[in-house]
Amino acid sequence: MAIDPLLLVYALPLLAVWAGWVLLAKMRSAKARATLEDNRQAGLTEPATLHPVIEPALCLGCAACIRACPEKKILGLIDGKAVLIEPTSCVGHGACATACPTDAITLVFGSATRGVDIPLLTPEFETTVPGIYIAGELGGMGLIKNAIEQGRQAIAGIARKAGHMPGGEGVLDVLIVGCGPAGIAASLGAIERKLSFATVDQDSFGGTVAHFPRGKVVMTSPATLPIIGEMRFGEVSKEHLLAYWEGVQQQTGLKPRFEEQVTAVTRNGGHFDITTSKASYRAKMVLLAIGRRGTPRPLGVPGEELGKVVYRLIDPEQYIGKRVLVVGGGDSALEAAIRVAEQPGTTVAISYRGNSYARARAKNRNRLRDLVQEGRVREMLGSTVSKIEPDAVIMQLAAETETLANDDVIICAGGLMPNDFLNATGIRSETKFGTV
Ligand SMILES: Cc1cc2nc3c(=O)[nH]c(=O)nc-3n(C[C@H](O)[C@H](O)[C@H](O)COP(=O)(O)OP(=O)(O)OC[C@H]3O[C@@H](n4cnc5c(N)ncnc54)[C@H](O)[C@@H]3O)c2cc1C
Asked: Are residues 141 and 268 in the same domain?
């Protein structure tokens, strides 16, 4: 049977387009699968906050969720179905669930294998310890707008109670712990309501936002800051948002105390005694706005208190021309070593007590291996730091001791999670295993 030539004229281009589309889909699927596998091998499988669970039977594979995700590349299509391929990078925007045309996505906390502890809170954000409140991501919900809203509402509840509670000499109405979005909103609310308060943060201004990668586009819906009014941003750079908040700080006279870590909160009669790394406070109430990112884990070695020791890489350019030691074997450590080694004139060593970087992504392991081979990073596996001095670090490698000339130390040894702090304070939580 002869084929109509006109049919070929139309059918062939269509066939070519279809074949191209199938090929592209296969390539994307392979890339998404590789990312998922890489994260599984590195143990990066548990999202920190609210995240999507996709019902494959309902998923059409239309990719609306992938396009809607502001963080990009968190979800991918594998064999025509949406999959959470970068679980630990999900920050809980929830835009994927809204965009899904078939309601195939549910937003949950925790997973079947690993539960997430969510503190039990009243609608006024009070914990199971009367007088201690929680606002922001520590309460379970991520996102800047939620943190601001909760900080604002929690301080309103605290202000309603403060007037009816006995005070006394040197007793604050409230101590606000943490100066991220929740702590900023709460502190402004405390000024507005004329409460006696102090805000302390173990780090600096802006909380987790201050540690976003340089130039990160922050997605945030409008939120209302006490005194200031509506903060109208959609997409904004991290730097712009921080500059805006610093302007608010100057305008309102807000004076948080930085580099001051709260280590214990105990009830003492009608008030709380709060111990920090620098001082002690007495307050009628405490607002915990400490997020869920935890506190960097120190090495506990002599000299760690020196100013040259930091626990996060913020600006790689500050290390140009410097001799830098990075400590750790996870992604943060490898990324820090890589980015510092890419700066001109740096001498970089990475020390890890293990014998391989099993907890890091393949992408980082491969890049580090290249830099080691090029002689741009010295790899010190099976080593530990025994002392940090102003111009050197004393290292222990098996039975040998080595003195490493050094200007800066970046320690990326994981974090102490806030759950320990909550447990020690007596605050009860509920463990969520993949539920809302
Ligand atoms: C990579 C990344 C990208 C993100 N992108 C976005 C985005 O685009 N849009 C968005 O809305 N959200 C985003 N998020 C989520 C957002 O950053 C958080 O939800 C938000 O910062 C939570 O605010 P918070 O005030 O509750 O806590 P945090 O911002 O985490 O602040 C907590 C503060 O408490 C301090 N602290 C902790 N423990 C103590 C202690 N014991 N003593 C004293 N101080 C303490 C910390 O130093 C910190 O400053 C992102 C998160 C990450 C990790």
From this structure: yes
In the structure encoding, which two tokens stand for residue 77, read together?
A: 């299509």
Alpha helices (runs of H) in 324-361, residue ranges in sequence order: 331-341
362-373 and 5-41 helices, crossing angle to 10°: 80
Pocket of ligand 1, beta carbon within 6 A: 70, 91, 136-137, 142-145, 147, 177-183, 200-203, 207-209, 212, 218-220, 261-262, 289-291, 293, 295
* Residue 107: C-alpha distances to residues 93, 190, 232, 247 (Å): 10, 33, 26, 35
CA of 254 to the centre of ligand 1 (A): 19
Identify the CA nearest to 125 among candidates 163, 153, 92: 153
Lowest-confidence segment of 143-152, 212-221, 366-375 by average pLDDT? 212-221
Looking at residue 147, its amino acid is A
Domain boundary pick from 108, 140, 161: 108
CA gap 421, 436 in Å, rounded: 23
Each residue's pLDDT tens digit, 185-205: 999 999 999 999 999 999 999
d(CA 234, CA 239): 14
CATH number reported for the structural domain that contains residue 215 in this entry: 3.50.50.60
Q: How many domains does the chain have?
A: 3
Q: Domain check: are 20 and 54 in the same one?
A: yes
**Measuring CA to CA, how many Å separate 308 from each of 166, 206, 325, 344, 413?**
45, 22, 11, 19, 16
